[in-house]
Amino acid sequence: MIPAFADPAAPSRPLHVVSSDRLSAFLAECSEAEAAWLGATKFEASLGDVRLLPAPDGQVQAAVVGFGTAKSRKRTRFGVAKACVALPAGVWHLEGPLGVAEKTEAALGWLLAQYRFDYYRPEAKMPEAVTLKCPEGCDPALLAAMAEGEFLTRDLINTPASDLGPAELEATFLDLADRFVADATVIRGDDLLAQNFPMIHAVGRASPRAPRLLDMRWGEKGPLVTLVGKGVCFDTGGLNIKPSSGMSLMKKDMGGAATVMGLALMVMRLNLPIRLRVLVPAVENVISGNALKPKDILTSRKGLTVEVNDTDAEGRLVLADALAYACEEETDLVISMATLTGAARVAVGPDLAPYYTDDARAVAALESGAQAGFDPVWRMPFHDAYESVIEPGIADLDNAPGFGFAGSITAALFLRRFVDKPRYMHFDIYGHTPTEAPARPKGGAGQGARALLLALPAMLGL
């Protein structure tokens, strides 16, 4: 499904957006019958509350959606999108004294709310289309690209590992490259060893579904941005096997790959003036006789040795080889995205995307992009004092130090050891919405992609 706005010339019905502090003024503007109806149905303009306004013949001629208070809007993104499931099919347009940012949030939320994942329910009835005209002052191309990229990310994360292993992720990756006339290459199986990607191979070799490194290049002019996404299509934990409770959501362990692919779609669809490279190490972390073992020592592509103290800390291993590869050429910005640590969830919960960087200009741009894209992020520190924690003594690095604290920070410090470029950002995302929210159904979710999309021009001086 490709989300889209309604034809601007199509007949439409008004959806009045009314905040709590403006309810009395709005009621005064209504007809006597409309005001009586809204009063009788106890409409208080709470965020997302909807009332249909009937015409004299009984048909719906308009609707009202509550915009709540400033406090409620801070607590809940995309509240106006609740109207999507309450309105009858047809074309609607927003009315009300909204600023451009408020219109943009409503319009983007409307598009995101159209998402359905019904692949495994072929008999499921699709709801009739409730479409919106893009409000004046908003950028329909930008919002549609954001929504389509998010839909790709959600689809990938939501698909179970039985139908989305390394080969299937590769197929989607190559389809994306074909669509936007990008160059793509794939290194598979034992060729990873032959071409010096030992840690990607070590993590994925136990699976009958061969590990691989996916590599896409797009664009001919402008600064080079390299995106690296963790593509662990399922994570059992390897020989340090997870309990069943820890394994139940591990189809989403390729959420970093899904998110960078969604971001790449946005960049290419909007034809941003950059050169883009996307690297995805795609593996399954499963168990067999040749599985990676605790206390194995691996020599990475960069030459650093890594003691494997936990085979369930495999994401940083595959990312490390890919990051080292990314830095073998001149690149202006390197960004890694991964569902990397439970520690990040403990720190900030599922709704925030924590990120690491030492680049002050990137921080300012990203914070602005996060606000404009309704895509919250939170800066975490590359805390140098913890560097010694990831040095086990027997090897250069430890993939799972027994420190007991700051697990997301030590993972980020581990990755930074493989990056030679000064402009580096790492996102430790969750990639999942645990409970239904406006415009965000329970299930797979992109995090940080919209913020990055809007931040890239300022980050790169475009």
Automatic annotation (TrEMBL):
Keywords: Aminopeptidase, Hydrolase, Manganese, Protease. InterPro entries: Leucine_aapep/pepB, Macro_dom-like, Peptidase_M17_C, Peptidase_M17_N_1. One of its GO terms (biological process) is proteolysis. Gene3D superfamilies: Leucine Aminopeptidase, subunit E, domain 1, Zn peptidases. Coiled coil: none annotated. The keyword Transmembrane helix does not apply. GO terms for molecular function: manganese ion binding; metalloaminopeptidase activity. GO terms for cellular component: cytoplasm. Residues 152-452 form the Cytosol aminopeptidase domain. Residues 14-125 form the M17 aminopeptidase N-terminal domain. The keyword ATP-binding does not apply. Belongs to the peptidase M17 family. This is Leucyl aminopeptidase. It comes from Paragemmobacter aquarius. The lineage of its organism: Bacteria, Pseudomonadati, Pseudomonadota, Alphaproteobacteria, Rhodobacterales.
